[in-house]
Amino acid sequence: MHLAKFDFEADLHCFSLDGLRLVVDVVSGAVHVLDQPAWEFVRELQANGGDVAAVRRQLAGSYPGAVLEEIEAELGQLAAEGTMFSPDPWRGQIGQPEPERALTTPVVKSLCLHLAHDCNLRCAYCFGSGGGFGGERGLMSETVAKAAIDFLLQSMGSRRHGEVDFFGGEPLLNFPVLEAAMAYARFRQREAGKELRFTLTTNGVLLTPAIREYLNREQISLVLSLDGRPEVHDRMRQYADGSGSYQEVLAAALALAESREQQNYYLRGTFTRHNRNFAEDVLHLADLGFRQLSLEPVVAPEQEEYALRADDLPGLYAEYERLALEYRRRETAGRGFRFFHFELELDHGPCVAKRVKGCGAGVEYLAVTPEGDLYPCHQFVGRPEYRIGSVLGGERDCSLQHRFQSADMYHKPACSRCWARFYCGGGCHANAVSFNQDLLQPWPLGCDLQRKRLELAIFLQAARRQELAG
Fold it and tell me: Which of 86, 136, 299, 366 could form a disulfide with 28 if both were Cys (CB 3.0 to 4.6 A apart)?
């Protein structure tokens, strides 16, 4: 199939790493591994708006005409199959009103229960102001916890599966209410014919053997906080007296991971401007034996001395590449581990509707304060203008939820042409508001890092498949 001009907008993404030349067809999700001539042909198509004749002229001095004819024919065949130059049928929806949403009450499938607005650490980068979220410190009562469970089960509609994340501050400061909430949730979900999954996010300091046994018995997923090397962790994650928490957290996290045979947990850290060589922290944790890892860039205003800045990006990109190549080497050698941002499902990922909506904060996912107030997510807690309602009495400001519901990637100008839009879904709402005071304007630096991580996740998938194919 030969075309005078391909139907070409900006929906291909070309990149290369470690000898692999890759092209992502953004709308179909197809990933192509190309040889050098075909890759150059596609890149020139991008530069020339799909004008094949112009590309032929530019590459005529580099490749024989027969090679260019063959490339053109193969690309035409891929286009006919729908895996190259795929048009985006949803792009025209940008900015269009969606009146049907105002007629429905959003279904909630996940709650983040702030069991404690208090913490035994004083982490320098904490968005929750040391656990208090800008207000008084306090613990959630059993009454509020049970009301939150009832609210979730009532708000799930016809959905059978829901999620509860126990959060803080440090939620283990309120362990008795955690136990009571779990017992109540187990009972109520059976009555309601629902199935709830549970997660606990903890700094690990209070993760005693007895609590570890309880969490394992209840099959509660764990997210544990450890930033990497001792000096890195202790610089940012300190007790109130200024001493570091690395040793206590490491011992608790190792015991937890081993007790679960390295399953059903994530060790999650944060990197800052102080450890832009963060690959060393990931590899440090992997060398200690942890197999489920995540390391996130700090989110902080630029005036903070630990904040990441735009001029850090080249070095951060290089560090992610270094990590990806070592990740692949260890995997090939049988010493692999999971790094959250490098795990990407190319064949059976979320449906288009889910990809467009993004994380679901403010719509499917809400946070509950110790007083029972509802917010779009844990990062909006403490901002009164984003209070949605309360689990005590059940009132909800659905108009605020509709604002979040409409803040999908097709209503965000910066996302509408981004090649990563179907993987990202429009970015973090809280970051958009923090940096731009606008739900529809994502945090640029976060977008840059997300795109780089996605490239590397796609590269790793392609490298694995190339190896399997011989």
Answer: 86
